[in-house]
Structure formats: structure tokens, C-alpha cells
Amino acid sequence: MTVFARIPALAPFQIRSFRFQWPADLLASWAFEMEGVILGWFVLVSTGSVTALAVFGSLQFLGTLVSPFFGMAGDRIGNRNVLCLMRITYAGVAFCLMLLFLSRLATPVPVFLLAAVMGLVRPSDITLRNLLVGETMPADLLMRAMSVSRMTADSARVVGALSGATLMATLGSGIAYVVICAVYGVSFLLSLNVGVRRLRVLGEQAIPLSPVRALREGFAYVWSTPDVRAATLLAFLMNFAAFPLVNALLAHVAKDIYGLDQTGLGWLIASFAIGALSGSILLSMHGARIRAARTMIACALVWFALNLVFSWIQTPRWGEILLILIGVAQSFCMVPMAVILLRTADPAFRGRVMGVRMLAVYGLPLGLLLSGPLIEHVGFAVTGSLYSVIGIAFTLLIAAHWREHLWYPQAAANQR
What CATH fold (topology level) applies to the domain 18-193+224-414? Predict the structure, then answer.
């Protein structure tokens, strides 16, 4: 018996494709976080506006509007091929930003334009990752595989945020982007070795020739499948009301509330990521024992409650402790949600379902755009409290309306 088989958390690495996909995803996530710290701080310092920071953060998710088409493209030409094309795009945009910073020509306008290009592509990265895991991983390893896969993003928020802040503070943004370009390049090379098996449950004609028809069928399938619809609506709610407080707005919390520099911002981001990583590790070891839908609902409520408390914290140390707890709740909410969608969706519709699910991420830029003016008028504490109360109320409504599919032990979404 190999070490992968003996240790439950490492069981997914028995699959050769996963042994290449995991480090490729890890490096891409590290580069994402490094860029987020560098560019977010640049925008805040160069414009001095929280609204500009919120707009910049929302640009990172511009591509959620076209994410269903990435899922359909994966069904047609292979998820691995689409993911490789996306990662070449990341490297190209990072190279342009590197040239701007090295030549000292970086201003908010070109940075915003390049961020918009990246924002068209990057939101679908997690969709393609999940689809590749779903089609290459046996069903009995799916929860563990999704938990281990989630670690790539969680650990990146620790390593990427701290390394990005450190590189920027010590060597400057231009040299930091040289490192980012190299990281994207290695991620692309590893992605070329990911498995290419493609599901053909209904045959080659399962995917309609018309992209519009395929998208319409994807929406119809999500709407007619109760547990999938409930999980998708909850995903939108979490992105709209929960993620903004621990996403781009952390730069505002660090600079204007806690009085920290970019290194302090890196530690705030890392605190949230440490909690999320801890949650993913726990799920990778014990996730097969939980009921996914119940865990998702309960931890969504815990997450909003912790956000409510975080909104009123004025000291960095308590803020970091709360961010760790919020990170744990986030993992125990979002990982089971992804497992529900991959496990309960018909494999023939899986790409379209995950593409529609990515549209839920559009709640994040909407939440950010609304939060910027609100913070400038009523402050971060009141804005965070409002978002948290809205989140708790709508989570309870979703749980009550679809209780047969989300709470009953015998429901498909709660099968172990």
C-alpha cells in the first residue's frame, strides 16, 4: 500500500492527473494573490478612494457574466485545453503589467484596463479546476479531492499575500511581477500534463451546436433541480453579502481602520487564509463523514455571524483572530457546496451547471460596488452589519424553502 492510500488526506494523489493539477492550481493561486495585494494597494494609494478600490475589486470578477461559455467550451474541446489557454492569458497580462511597473509608466487607467482583461478570464479558473477534478476523480474520493483542491487557493492567500506584500515593499512592484510571470509559466507547463478524459454520457451530440441553446438548457436544468438551484442561490448570497468584507475591502480595513501598511494588509489576508486552509485540511481528513447540505447551511449562518462581529472590531489582533474563524467557516460552507453540485448534477450537464454556478460569483462585484459608497457615507461597521443581517435572513429563507433537499438526512445532497 502506498503512502497516498494510507493517509486519507493524500488519497486523491493516487490519481496521476491530480498529481499534476494540484501544483499547477497552487502556483496559479499564488500568483493571483500576489497580484491582488500589489494592485489593490497600488489603486488605493494612487487614487485615495475606497470607491475606486471597490471598482477595481469588481473588475476581477467581470468574467462571471461569460463563465457559462467557458464550461461549454470545456465540454467541447476539453477542460484541460481551455484551462491551458486561460493560464497563457494570465502570463501575458502579467508580462504587460511587469513592463509598466519596471518602466515606471503604471497609472490607474492602464492598470484598470489590464485588470478588466484578466477579470474576463480568471473567474472561470475555479470552474475548470472543479470540472477536471469531477471528471478524473472516483466518487468516493470526491469530497477529499475537493477539500485538497481548495487548499491551493487557501494556502495561496497565506503565501501569495505575504510574499506579494514583502516583494513589493522590498524590491518594488516591477521585480515582484517578474516573479509572478515565472510562477504563471510553471503553472502552465504543469497544466499540460493534467488528464484529458472527457465524459460522453449522452454521446457527442449531447452538447448542442448553438451556444445560446446550451446556455438556456443549463439554466433550465439548474432551475428544475431543487438542490442545485438552492446551492446556486446560496452561492450568489455568499458572494454578495459575505465575501466583500474579507476580499478587496480588507485594504480599506488595514489602512483606514487599523492604520497598517501593506505588510499589515498581507497579514490580514493571511489570517483569513490560515483559517480557510485549516478548514480544508479538516475536510480532507473527515469530510466523508459529514452531510454536505446541512454543513453548508449551518456554516453559512456562522460565517455571517462572525462577519457581523468583525465589522465592529477596531484592533488588528482581534481582527486577525476573527478572520481565522471566518476562514474556517468559509471552507465548511463552500467546499460542501461544490461537492453538492458535482455529485448531484447529471454528468452530461456538469460543465453547464458549473458555468451557471460561476455566474453566482457576480454577486461579489455587485456587493463591492454597493459597499464602496455605503462605507463612505455610513462607515464600515454599519455597512458590514447590514450585509451580515441580510445574509442571515436570506440563508434562513433558502434553508426553509428547500428543507426537504437541504436538511433532511435522506436527501441526495446529504448522502455521505
Answer: Growth Hormone; Chain: A; (1.20.1250)
